[in-house]
Specification:
CATH topology of the largest domain: Diaminopimelate Epimerase, Chain A, domain 1
Number of domains: 2
Distance between the termini: 7 Å
Structural class: alpha+beta
Helix content: 10-25%
Number of helices: 6
Order of helices and strands: EEHEEEHEEEEHEEHHEEEHEEEE
CATH class of the largest domain: Alpha Beta
Length: about 260
């Protein structure tokens, strides 16, 4: 029996922008090796696998190298597919059970709002390999659950950064660089590097904004933030921090549908 697979560009309203993710809505459980092989075949930053459960859906995310504990853009893409294919209605809240607990998605006038966990940053001494890999003056360095957060002095520094991925692979976490936006279009900009997961640069990283949201909310004094991830493809998010949760809003567009044999 053929298995439908859908490719979605997340955190964008235009095809071939944002972050592509593949989504499989499965009729029943499949083994991890098969899911990993599918993710390798798709060769995207994440492939999502969804199985219906009594209280919602089980959601898992795989990079080409391994399974990950939290992924924003593939969750956004998964909700988009469930609504677009009529599995759920736009009036329903979608409940995803994941390695990071319960995540929800709501449809809001053409936007998808995700309810994700807050990830705080602690001040930490950045490894020499991190500073050397970035190769630019660092204003602040800190450590969150999955990432090293590196604040640079300007948006220009974020955009021109050309990190040494060989050195980044030696670190214990992914690397997130950020700075205040140079324009009024956004509040802050960022880029995300995950070579240890076989992703040198992730185009738009929803989970990174679980770190960026609390960090910039405290420093800018704004409850709702506009964020741009300045990769080559680029992507836009609205970010709101409320207590222990971070709400991410984005859009998505389907670019491809096919069948796995």
């Amino acid at each position: 029996m053929l298995q439908r697979i859908t490719q979605v560009d997340a955190f964008t309203d235009k095809p071939f922008r944002g972050n592509p993710a593949a989504v499989c809505v499965l009729p029943g459980p499949r083994d991890e090796q098969w899911m990993q092989l599918v993710a390798q075949e798709m060769n995207l930053s994440e492939t999502a696998f969804i199985i219906r459960e009594p209280e919602g859906f089980r959601l898992r995310w795989f990079t080409p190298a391994n399974e990950v504990a939290l992924c924003g853009h593939a969750t956004l893409a998964s909700a988009h597919v469930l609504w677009e294919e009529g599995v759920c209605t736009h009036q329903e809240e979608i409940r995803f059970h994941t390695m990071s607990g319960l995540l929800t998605a709501r449809w809001k006038a053409g936007w998808i709002e995700l309810d994700f966990p807050r990830l705080d940053t602690e001040v930490a001494s950045a490894p020499d390999a991190l500073i050397e890999a970035i190769g630019l003056p660092v204003q602040f360095a800190g450590r969150s659950k999955f990432t090293w957060l590196v604040v640079l002095h300007s948006e220009g520094d974020v955009r021109k950064a050309a990190p040494d991925f060989r050195l980044l692979r030696t670190l214990d976490r992914d690397v997130l660089i950020t700075a205040v936006s140079a324009t009024t279009d956004y509040d802050f900009v960022s880029r995300y590097f995950a070579p240890r997961h076989a992703i040198d640069e992730d185009p738009v990283t929803g989970s990174a904004h679980c770190v960026l949201g609390p960090y910039w909310t405290e420093r800018l004094g704004k409850s709702e933030l506009r964020a741009f991830q300045a990769s080559e493809r680029g992507g836009f998010l609205r970010v709101r921090t409320a207590g222990e949760r971070v709400f991410l809003m984005g859009q998505a567009v389907t670019v491809m549908r096919g069948d796995l044999i």
